Amino acid sequence: MNLNPAEVEKIVREVFQKTQLKPAAVAAQANIPAAPAIVPATSIPERARAVVLVEKEKLEFREFPLRKIRADEILVRVESCGICGTDIHCYKNDPFNLCPVVLGHEGTGEVVAVGSDVRMDSVGKPVRPGDKIVTSTLETSTACMIAKYNPAKANLCDDLQIYGLLPDEPDNHFNGYFGEYLIIRPGSSFFVVNDMSLDLRVLIEPAAVAAHALERAKKTGLINFRSRIIVQGCGPIGLMMIAIVRTAGVNNIIAIDGNAARLETAKRMGADHAINIRDYPDRQGLIEAVGKLTKGMGAHFAFQVTGVPAAASTIWKLVRRGGGICEVGFFVDGGDCTINPHEDICKKEIMLVGSWAYNSWEYPNAYHFLQRAERIGLPVEKLITHHFSLDRIHEAFQTNIRQEGIKIIVDNPSFQSLRN
Questions:
Q1: Domain 210-354 class?
Q2: Per-residue pLDDT averaged across 175-192, rounded?
Q3: With pLDDT > 90 as the criterion, what percentage of the chain qualifies?
Q4: Among 91, 77, 86, which Cα is nearest to 160's?
C-alpha cells in the first residue's frame, strides 16, 4: 500500500484521536516525545491464548475472548516473563489456592491500547501504544488496616495482589504474564521502561525483591562500606541480592551455596569469596570457613535467601555478636527451623528483619539499581540462561525444577511490536 505524506498524517491523527492521545504539536508543547509509528498488521484479536494452571502440576493452553478494555484499563501484548520460584511452588502445591490461575509475574510487554482515562504511569511518565511496560501490585482494599494506617507497609496486607497470582475471573482471564495478553486494571502500579533491554525488563521484578530486602537490612544500621556480608543461597534472588549489595558499595561479600556453577556466577555478580557447603561435612566446618574470612568473628550481616529450614538454622551461627540477619528465603511455608534463643539471639544481641515481597515504589529503585549495576560492570543480564517459547512452557518449568541454569524466561512467540 502506497500512501502520500498527507494520507499518512491523516491516519496518524485519527489514531491519536481514537486513543485520546495528544497530537504531535500539543505533545511537543507539553514536552512529551512523539509517539511511535503504528503498524496496522498488529491488530488486536478477538481471542487470545493463555497458559492456565488448572490443578497441581497441570498446565493447559486455553483460548479466551479478549474483551475490549474499559476507560481505566490498559491492554498489554506480552513479550516475555521469567519463571519465579513462587511459580514453581504454585505449580507443585497451589499453596495460595489460586487454581485455575494464569501464572507469571516477572513479565514485561508492550502497550497496545490505553483506556481514555489513563494518561501516565505511576511515576508520571506519559503512556501510549508502543510503550514497553512492567507492572507491580494492585491497590489493597480500603478495609486493610495495615495499608490505611501505615501505607509504607502495604506489602503486608493479607489481600496484597500481584499479577500472575490473581484468581481467574469470568470476564477477564488475562491476569498473568504466561499468555499472549495482560489487562492492567485500575489501581495498579505500572511503569514505562522504554530505555531498557528485554532481558533487563524481565529482571525488574526479582530486582525489586532484592531492593526491598536491602532497604529492610539498612534499617538495622549494619550495612556500610566496611561490612562483611554473607548471602546464603545463590539462586536467582540470592544472586540478585549479591549484585545489589555490591552496587550499594559493600566491599566484602561472602556467597554460600552448594552449587559450584552458581558460586562462580556469584563472583561475577560481585562476591569476593565463595563457600561451597559440599566441601564441609558438618556445620562446624562451615562456621570455621566463615570465621577465616571474618577475622574469626563472623559476618556483620547475613541475607538468608534459601527456602531450606536447615540453612535458616545455620545462618545464626555465621553472624558475629552485635550482627544482623535479613530473612528473604521463605515466600511459602517451608517448615520450621531450630535455633537456640540464648546462643543465637540474646547472647549476640542479633538484629533480625524479615523481608516480604516489595512495595510498588520499589520498582523504580530496582530499575535504577539494574542500570547502575551494568554501569559498574556487573553482568546482571547474564543471570538469564534460558529462553523458551510459550509453546514450550512445560519444558521451561521442568528445566527450572531441575535447577538447570539460573533465570528461565518464557517468550510469547506471537509477539509483534507496534514500533517500526
A1: alpha beta
A2: 95
A3: 80
A4: 86
Q: How far apart are CA 179 and CA 234, in angstroms?
A: 29
> Shortest CA distance to 121 belongs to which of 174, 63, 74?
74
pLDDT band at residue 160 under the 50/70/90 scheme? confident
Strand ranges, E, within 83-224: 106-114, 132-138, 161-162, 181-184, 188-192
* Distance in angstroms (rounded) separating the CA atoms of residues 363 and 209: 9
User: If you average pLDDT over residues 415-420, what whole number do you get?
Assistant: 84
Mean pLDDT of 297-323: 97
Cell numbers that stand for 363 in this block: 520498582
In the chain the first and final C-alpha atoms are separated, in Å, by 16
Residue 179: strand, helix, or coil:
strand
Q: Quote the pTM value.
A: 0.87
For residues 304 and 314, is the Cβ–Cβ distance under 8 A? no
Domain borders along the chain are 15-193+381-411, 210-354
Q: Which fold has domain 15-193+381-411?
A: Quinone Oxidoreductase; Chain A, domain 1 (3.90.180)
pLDDT in tens, 254-279: 999 999 999 999 999 999 999 999 99
Q: How many CB atoms lie within 10 A of CB 191?
A: 23
Closest of 147, 198, 139 to residue 163, by C-alpha: 139
Amino acid at the residue 109: G
Amino acid letter, residue 188: S
Q: Listing from the earlier edge strand, what are the strands of the sheet with 319-327?
A: 273-276, 252-257, 228-232, 299-304, 319-327, 351-354
Question: Residue 394 contacts by C-beta under 8 Å, 6 or more apart in sequence?
Answer: 59
User: What is the DSSP secondary-structure string of 188-250?
Assistant: EEEEE-TTS-HHHHHTHHHHHHHHHHHHHHHTTT--STT-EEEEE--SHHHHHHHHHHHHTT-
In percent, the amount of the chain with pLDDT more than 70 equals: 90
- Residues making up the chain, counted from first to last: 420
Backbone angles phi, psi at 228, to 5 degrees: -95, 115
Nearest to 328 by CA among 234, 261, 250, 252: 234
Condensed to tens digits (0 to 9), the pLDDT of residues 195-228 reads 999 999 999 999 999 999 999 999 999 999 999 9
**Joined grid coordinates for residue 296:** 574469626
Q: What helix, strand, coil percent values describe the chain, rounded to 5?
A: 35, 25, 40
pLDDT-derived band of residue 148, with 50, 70 and 90 as boundaries?
confident
Q: Do domains 15-193+381-411 and 210-354 have the same CATH topology?
A: no
Comparing CA positions, the residue from 405, 345, 90, 383 lying closest to residue 210 is: 383
